Amino acid sequence: MAVSEGLAIGALAQRTGLAVSAIRYYEAQGLIAPWRNAGGQRRYQRADIRRLSFIMIAQQFGLTLPEIREVLSGLPGNRTPTPKDWQKISIGLRSHLDQRIDTLTRLRDNLDGCIGCGCLSLPKCALYNPDDRAKSHGSGPRYLMGDAPEA
Amino acid sequence: MAVSEGLAIGALAQRTGLAVSAIRYYEAQGLIAPWRNAGGQRRYQRADIRRLSFIMIAQQFGLTLPEIREVLSGLPGNRTPTPKDWQKISIGLRSHLDQRIDTLTRLRDNLDGCIGCGCLSLPKCALYNPDDRAKSHGSGPRYLMGDAPEA
DNA sequence: CCTTGACCTAAAGTTAGGTTTAGAAATTAC
DNA sequence: GTAATTTCTAAACCTAACTTTAGGTCAAGG
């Protein structure tokens, strides 16, 4: 019976390569919202495979889970997202990625001229002012990187 | 007397912009080695300002503290490093950075064609196979991502 | 001499992104 | 109708890179 009662969490895990615990964690973070069957178990739509795939890709691009949740909120809530819908929200990813590449490239260009030239110890060194603030995902203070003393 | 008994940790913190606790932490991780004065307090050389600066820059580039410790071990231990010494070890940074830029660029090039085209849900999608897979050194699974998200 | 501020150590807390564990209930397989 | 799988929840644990706290010690100034 139940020609299509949706995917169980284990099946979704297999299809995406994610751990079951990770999928539950994403739900806790508001990134995915399954329904429950009569027995209280999570059931997912086929479209959720793509949703999780998107999450994994966005993570590779350096987005945090809150950021990804934000991006996903751009999808329609009342129907299964179409390829066009995915395309639309992926534009944000693209610009995020472009920014990161720019930053790193700028950093690299400054490296050769800066390390070894003597300015390394000066707060005004170009390398100290990554005006983009690539807030590395760790927690902690790092008020230097995210919040340069000024510029 | 003691025309130059070295810098106290607070002075070093001010000069570098780092928190005192962070500098002690770096010592615990083997990244810097001050000596102690008669009273047991840490004393630093002026050259350590540059050492900490290097650490901060390397972090922006995405290196972990163990990796930075490794790079720093390339400096001479018996004398104050010269600009040439710094230049030498910075070559490793440069290649690290080049790799990261390459990876991101490859990812970006795949993005437009991949998201929205329908392959997003397939495990064979190019975005799923960042062939660089830098041995996910983090704890968790992230066996999918080639490298910790870093920044 | 005494007070204030900087410094000391060790241990616990923090954030992100999950995993592991434990005990119980639901499903599936035979 | 069981036995074996899965799944459930809640809570504890994990890493990296630090910070905060607690309880004391050192150093400098008046």
What does this structure look like?
Two copies of one chain form a homodimer. Chain A has a three-stranded antiparallel β-sheet. The model of chain A is unreliable at about 130-150 (pLDDT under 50). Chain A has helices at about 10-15, 20-30, 45-60, 65-70, 85-115, 145, and strands at about 5-10, 35, 40-45. Chain A is elongated. With about 150 residues, chain A is mainly alpha-helical. Chain A has six helices and three strands. In chain A, strand 2 (about 35) and strand 3 (about 40-45) form a beta hairpin. The longest helix of chain A is centred in the middle third of the chain and has 32 residues, at about 85-115. In chain A, about 50% of the residues lie in helices and about 5% in strands. Chains A and B meet through helix 3, helix 5 and helix 6 of A and helix 3 and helix 5 of B.
* DSSP strand count of chain A: 3
Q: Could you tell me which chain pair has the largest interface and how many residues each side has? A: A-B, 54 and 51 residues
> Multimeric state of these chains?
homodimer
Tell me the fraction of residues in β-strands of chain A, as a range: under 5%
Instruction: Please compute the radius of gyration of chain A using only Cα atoms.
Output: 21 Å
Structure class of chain A: mainly alpha
Largest sheet of chain A: 3 strands, antiparallel
Shape of chain A: elongated
User: What portion of residues of chain A is helical?
Assistant: 40-55%
Distance between the termini of chain A: 66 Å
How many helices of chain A? The count is 6
* Spans where pLDDT lies below 50 across 5 or more residues of chain A: 130-151
Secondary-structure element order of chain A, N to C: EHHEEHHHH
The largest sheet of chain A has its strands arranged as 1-3-2
Mean pLDDT of chain A: 78
